[in-house]
Design goal:
The protein is an alpha+beta fold. Helices cover about 65% and strands about 10% of the residues. It has a four-stranded antiparallel β-sheet. A hairpin with a 6-residue loop joins strand 4 and strand 5.
Amino acid sequence: MRPIHELLSEHPLLAPLTPDEIAILAEVSNIEEAKAGTVLIREGELDRSVYILVEGSAEVIKRNPETGDTYTIVVLEEGASAGEMALLSGAEGRRSATIRTRESSVLIRIDFDAVLQKEEHGALHVKLLSNIARDLSGKLNTTNQITVASMKKELETSKAQIAMGMFTVNILFMLGIYTLSFRLLMSLVIEWGSNWISVGILAIMATAMYVMIRRSGYPLHMFGLTLNNWRKVLTESFVLTLPLLVGITLAKWVVLLLNPQIDDSVFSIVPMLLEGKMDHTMLIYGIAYALFCPIQEFISRSGIQSALMNFLPPSKTRVWAAILLSNLLFAMAHTHLNVTFALLTLFPGLYWGWMYARQKSLLGASFSHILVGVWIFFVIGIDQIWNALF
């Protein structure tokens, strides 16, 4: 350990002092070693010793007089000083906080009482008070900046909680209306067909989601509504979707292999093209499906998943909780069609939810959804397999 007078002369609080003044302080100073949890200064006590942290760390603790609870205000690292506030409070000033080591530490304890009681050190006393006041002014400025940052963070948290509350209320409202009208939906499915009912539900939900997003006060890119890096997003989406298309194709091949009674080929579109059975109706259905895929993704990703990802309390599982919950809610909205179909929409939805969380863009998940949907319904076809198996 270096001599005390060298350590004291290098400390910012004492740097303006002359060598003679440093020597006076060195005479009333000593080096102490403290174990973790050692209380150096206790709140409320009469003591004017100042500590300089040479090695280790300590924490400033404040007690709530009403509840008795204690709170760590700040952590002091190597080179920090503690206890100088008592020099400004006078002889009867009591400690305003407790200082406790957080780990094994080495400190310099300066007994200022031994110096201040001597009249010949009056000039030294004035210079110390001036330095301490300047140091405390700097610390106060830093504290103000930290306070402002903390207030901004609390404001953002409150804003997020309000947005999450409004989101929850609106989702519950829509689910309540959907549940109450379920019997009516079933009747309409029988009378009008499931496709028209699905379009109506999607239109209502998409409109409600868009209104919620606009009223949230957050920027649109926070909900994946952005074209930033669109080339990279689309390229990555295509690459990530290729294994899914191959897996779906292999799955149909295996099903046909195990069920020879199904009269179909792996690529249903090939016989249609060769036999000239492709008509305008199928093309229109394909275009309509491709147009509605982004609407579906908008509801489940931008509307539900984004809100959960941004407004749920921070945790390691928040993203996956948002992905799972958003797809469960969206799958539930398809139960008027078929429970099996609703469950089957859940699994690719998890994949698109992961893609959306990765890219932070609705564009990639929508493009992948279009590729998979067009591939399943219009390239390899699942109508005959679906009818045979379900």
